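re: ur question from yesterday

yeah so i grabbed the chain u mentioned. its 389 aa long if i counted rite. heres the sequnce exactly as i have it in my notes:
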Amino acid sequence: MRILLIGNLPYTRIGGIEKYHFNVIKLLLKNYPQAQIDEYSICAALEYDQLPPIRPAIPNVNIILNSCYQNNNYSHKFNIKQYFKRIRHGCEQITKLMAQNQYDLCVCSVFHLAKKIKFNLNKTIFIQHMDVSFYDNSCFTNDKWAKLTLWWIKYFHKCIPALAIANVRKIICYTKYDKIKIKQKFKSTTHAQFFNVPLGYETHLSVPSRNKPAIIAYCGRIDNQQKNISFLIKLMKYLHKLTPYQLVLWGGGEMVKDLSNKPNIVYRGTYSSDTDLRNIYQDVKFAINTSRTEGFSYSLLEAMSLGVPIIVRDTYSNARFLVNGKKNGIIIPKKMKPQIAAAHIASLINKIDYERMQKNCLSFVKNKCNIKLVNQKLLTAFSSVLDHK
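ran it thru and got these structure tokens back, copy pasting raw so excuse formatting
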């Protein structure tokens, strides 16, 4: 059996899509031990001064990098010409791979390739990466040149995820909320087969402590383009005037320098997949995410698995899924400015039944995002392709 997986980078980051992708590999190898997997990394929209460490080799998995990255030709700033060059090279390489190999299954988590590659749709299943709001050109930035670039890409219909979604027959999305929004935005998916599979969590759930200090934690990439750290900084400035809460941040990114000399913010440094999360969350009362958009926030899932309630902006479909009718935390309406959002949080944070909310979080992860349940759903999706006659 030959399987082709198409994603971003098979590197040692700890983001949600990387976890999801790696779990797919482990699941396929476990259930199809004779399978040979080609893992192609498009590296489409990523910019680095140097390529991050690649994940250690796995038997029966052949990692293939986009040829644009094989000459150490990296650029730290977004470059539209280089972006399309990587897309073009990636599509050429994938087309050759598919011509040279008779793949029984193709799993692609990079939507924007479908328009440029003639996939065998009966053998292909796409995995959602980002929320539908990702396709809104105002979603990520207020920079006018970045907006113009995104508009230009859309206008000429080149390598756009929206077009790709319209050309697939099987889609794995995180939740029913994503399915609804995808079908609303892309009418041609009306007859596509959807599989709702959230991120899964496999570590042991911990018993939470009841008496915690007034600390809110953020774990993740510290940038403004997607994670909207400037909003979080402003929010905490106003919240600190209304409550004793302070913010603790873990992670790395371009905005780390902006965290210094702020009395209500403590930066603890980077963390990795080997970090014991209990050391991060043992004294944390809430975990927060104020991103402009997400696919499915893995960092919030980690916090909830340790009985830590969440605070999240309503900027993507699964924010409401994770909050679960306010049983698991506090949701910030999408259009609220930082000052109003701080007042909103302050009005609720001392009124909630915190112990019950902790138990709700543990129960939610166990029943909704249990890794065994997630893997069963993934196998059902893959079987629908492999069993197709």
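noticed a couple things. The mean pLDDT is 82. also Residues 305 and 365 are 6 Å apart (CA to CA).
anyway ttyl
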